[in-house]
Amino acid sequence: MTTTVFFGAAAVIPAFLLTLLLTPLVLKIAHHKNWYDDPDHRKIHSEDIPRLGGVALFVSVMAMWGAFSLLRVSVSSHFHFIDLLRYLPFLAGMVIIHLVGLLDDFANLRARYKLIGQIIAGLFVVATSHYFHSVQLPFAANPLVLGPVGGRLFTLLWIVGITNAVNLIDGLDGLSGGVSALISLALALSAWSLGSYTAGFMAFFLFGALAGFLVYNLPPARIFMGDSGSLFLGFSLSIIPILAFRGPQAPFALPLGSTLLLLPIFDTLAAILRRIRRRIPLHFPDQEHLHHKLLYLGFSTRRILLAAYAATTLSGAAVLAWSLAAGSRPLLPQLPQLPLASALLTLAWLLVIGAFSLLDRRYKRRLGPRYYNST
């Protein structure tokens, strides 16, 4: 436990401090160059706020990867994990997705070009052996084997889907950053409880960088992460479960990863269904995402953040409980049995689904005929 705390802090604190120092620099440059996230009818803010906080996030995470690679951390046989060549496809994908987001922040790329960039970044991952080989479906006796082709295609769909899902919830001060930070922390602790130290460090780097960024992004936000940050976050959170849950736990990578990302996944699925029902292109924006609905129902920004953070914490606790119960080297004594931990996963899904359904019902009732006329 002491070793876990020490190395966790060694990963989190430098990433936190680096982002804390880099973000004001990005802020200063953005103000000088007038690089603002221009307000429009779809956005909640009405002031000129810089949009390039994702640059500080990206540089911090990649710098931490570089530093740990050079140091060749090797405390025990379980910590021979930093092999830059082995993880080069992941790093290459992160660089590509960040550049795609950066181009979109400046040039407002067309949806098709952003999608192509996301697919290219995802291909760097699935071209290796890192993909969903099998998936444990609920109540099934054995995992569903996807095969090399099916597994790679499904994983590519997962990466692109989660990358966009995290991007879509980036519409409120502190929402995407805070939710992603909690997911990263849960992933880091879960990965370490299962002995996946590389994935754990990657998640800790992300958590530390996000903690530093949130100092400037919590309401009232002084800077936004922009697409360069939200796409980078979504891509990173989509690939860490593939690294974290491996070996006997590999079939659970998708169910556990989905549980952690329930909030952005359900928000995205709802958006897709709205667009299909209204017969408009999937990439068309609207003002009916989770945070828009809560704002319309009278929730303050802080109450929305509290609700989103609580839901994400619940999902993260359920996944961590499962990981601690399944891990051979648990972080805590007297762990819950695996069936109980699995029940917690099911409970997290039911609670989030129930909350989304209740919110949707209240929103439609408040709009009344206006909602149904718009469809």
Annotate the secondary structure layout.
Layout: H1 2-33, E1 36-37, E2 49-50, H2 53-71, H3 88-107, H4 111-126, E3 134-135, E4 144-145, H5 147-168, H6 175-193, H7 197-217, H8 226-244, H9 253-260, H10 262-278, H11 290-296, H12 301-326, H13 338-367, H14 369-374
Antiparallel strand pairs: 1-2, 3-4
Structure description:
The protein has 375 residues and is mostly helical. The chain has one domain (2-374). Helices cover 70% and strands 2% of the residues. The chain has helices at residues 2-33, 53-71, 88-107, 111-126, 147-168, 175-193, 197-217, 226-244, 253-260, 262-278, 290-296, 301-326, 338-367, 369-374; strands at residues 36-37, 49-50, 134-135, 144-145. Strand 3 (134-135) and strand 4 form a beta hairpin. 45% of the residues are buried. The model is unreliable at 73-82 and 330-335 (pLDDT under 50).
